[in-house]
Design brief:
The chain folds into 2 domains: 4-86; 107-398, TIM Barrel, CATH 3.20.20.70. It has 16 helices and 16 strands. It has helices spanning 38-46, 54-63, 68-81, 143-155, 176-192, 210-218, 231-237, 247-260, 279-290, 313-335, 343-353, 400-410, 424-427, 432-439, 450-470, 472-475, and strands at 8-11, 15-19, 22-27, 32-35, 52-53, 84-86, 107-111, 162-168, 196-203, 222-226, 266-272, 294-299, 368-371, 376-378, 392-393, 397-398. The strands form 3 sheets. The chain has a 10-stranded mixed β-sheet with strand order 12-11-10-9-8-7-13-14-15-16. Strands 5-1-6 form a 3-stranded antiparallel β-sheet. Helix 9 (279-290) links the parallel strand 11 and strand 12 (294-299). Helix 2 packs across helix 3. The relative contact order is 0.12.
Length: 485
């Protein structure tokens, strides 16, 4: 039998980074961050090239002035957290486990219409995974389907005090009457069981009016506006079917929305595409010229054949450079105790603060489902009206076999390339829909995005470390950011 003194140790899986002249380590298996003291850094340094025996590590620590008891205690703690591990032990891999069939639902995305008054060139609504299945399907959700969806959500959310409904399209406000009726119905139904419903919507802002804005403010409906920046960038791809740009139409409506809606933050979601990549200029226009509270960016990395709006390596490099510039601004604000508004930092930082360690890239098929105008259930809004991905119907419930298959294939442990990636706790392989469009499999890792994600995660880790040293109270703001608000 091997004794403890004979054990040889190697360094565990980790990602080391420096921040504010301090040494930190991120542990993927735990989703945890530790600041390294001198003794721990010394142990890891000794394990850099080859395994070292337990007795030799303990002796080195005592030679540096540590008592035998403290040296043994340190090595025990390092084993417990996974910073060091026995050389003969095979590291565990993530289990591909599905949640129970009665996993309580938390949110629905209601695609109240698949119609839109714009013709944005990069829209996925009629992508290759849907276009052949649209014939004969309703274009607008009916009140009966909407009420059935609310009933399904409340029945499937047993044990939750609050649930969430997101209204989506097409252009959501083309079916505003239904949205208004859903809020009234859902509030009344939830109250019967002492629960509550929160709401959000995504809109292109072209149909906003003062009465609509007052309704959204009065019911604390969170609003995300799809907008791509200043006029020349907005009008490059976010156009009417005639080809006319939409910026001049939405600008006064956005000003009214931000001025009148004070119950929830108003956010902007920017789609970055070829020719629309000046992240810094876009951010400052939306933040300072228009007044959005937060701005988030999503690059187009997958395109259908024959389209040229996707970003290639050079374009993604330019985007990431812009992200770094805004990250500098974000950190400067945070060190002064001020929020900045670049949500790509805030969202990742909040995941680090709470120790996120994902089995799946997002809540699709887990606590969240999409609902098409016909009432079909899908993993999320991006799969609505794609027959291949239907998981059931609001009237009959979830097909648990299809849901289990989707989740098993999408599990990070089923993606070979992810098992050795230190960024997997936050990424878990990337978007299911993007994986399907690019690779034909919802469970395929988004390999075209890996280097980008690792570099960006490393940058936000450095921000975390800097704040942990220089303004740790600021990090406390992000502990509850992932709630239903």
């Amino acid at each position: 039998m091997t004794t403890l003194l004979e054990h040889r140790y190697r360094a565990g899986e980790m990602h080391r980074f420096l921040a504010a002249e301090a040494d930190f380590v991120y542990l993927p298996r735990a989703g945890a961050i530790f600041a390294l003291d001198a003794a721990t850094a010394d142990v890891l340094g000794r394990l850099r090239d080859a395994p070292v025996a337990h007795g030799d590590l303990a002796a080195a620590l005592t030679d540096d002035g540590m008592s035998q008891a403290d040296a043994e205690g340190l090595l025990r703690e390092l084993r417990l957290v996974g910073l060091i591990e026995a050389d003969h032990v095979v590291s565990p891999v993530a289990l591909v486990d599905s949640p129970p069939a009665d996993f309580p639902l938390q949110a629905l995305v209601l695609n109240v219409t698949n119609q839109c008054n714009l013709a944005c060139t990069y829209c996925y609504e009629f992508g290759a995974d849907k276009i052949s299945t649209q014939t004969g399907k309703p274009k607008y959700m009916t009140p009966e389907t909407a009420r059935a969806a609310v009933d399904f959500l409340l029945d499937s959310a047993k044990g939750r005090d609050a649930v969430h409904v997101t209204f989506f399209g097409g252009e959501t406000l083309m079916n505003f009457k239904l949205l208004r009726d859903v809020v009234a119905y859902a509030d009344a139904k939830a109250a019967e069981s002492g629960r509550r419903v929160t709401y959000s919507l995504t809109t292109n802002a072209t149909l906003l009016t003062d009465p609509i804005i007052d309704f959204l403010a009065g019911h604390a409906v969170g609003v995300t506006v799809s907008i791509d920046g200043p006029e020349e960038m907005q009008d490059a791809r976010r156009v009417y079917k005639s080809g006319k740009g939409s910026y001049a139409v939405i600008l006064p409506r956005l000003k009214a929305l931000i001025a009148r809606h004070k119950t929830r933050a108003i956010t902007a979601r920017v789609t970055l595409s070829a020719g629309v990549t000046d992240v810094v200029a876009i951010y400052h226009h939306l933040k300072h010229d228009i007044g959005f509270h937060e701005i988030g960016f999503a690059p187009v990395t997958t395109t259908e054949d024959g389209h040229d709006f996707g970003l290639n390596g050079d374009g993604m490099r330019g985007v990431l450079n812009g992200f770094h510039a805004l990250a500098d601004e974000w950190l400067d604000h945070a060190l002064r105790g001020q929020m900045h508004g670049f949500s790509n930092v805030s969202e990742t930082l909040s995941e680090l603060v709470v120790g996120t360690n994902k089995s799946h890239p997002c809540g699709a098929g887990l606590g969240l489902l999409g609902v098409s105008p016909s009432g079909d259930l899908s993993p999320c809004h991006r799969f609505t009206d794609a027959d291949e991905h239907v998981l059931g119907h609001v009237g009959s419930g979830v097909d648990q076999d299809r849901r289990a298959d989707f989740l098993a294939r999408g599990h990070v442990g089923a993606k070979y390339e992810c098992t050795s990636c230190w960024a997997r706790p936050l990424c878990a392989g990337g978007c299911h829909h993007e994986a399907f469009v690019r690779y034909g499999d919802t469970g395929h890792a988004n390999l075209h995005y890996c280097d980008w994600i690792r570099e960006w995660t490393d940058r936000v880790l450095a921000i975390y470390g800097t704040l942990a040293v220089r303004n740790p109270q600021f990090l406390e703001r992000f502990a509850d950011r992932k709630g239903l608000s």
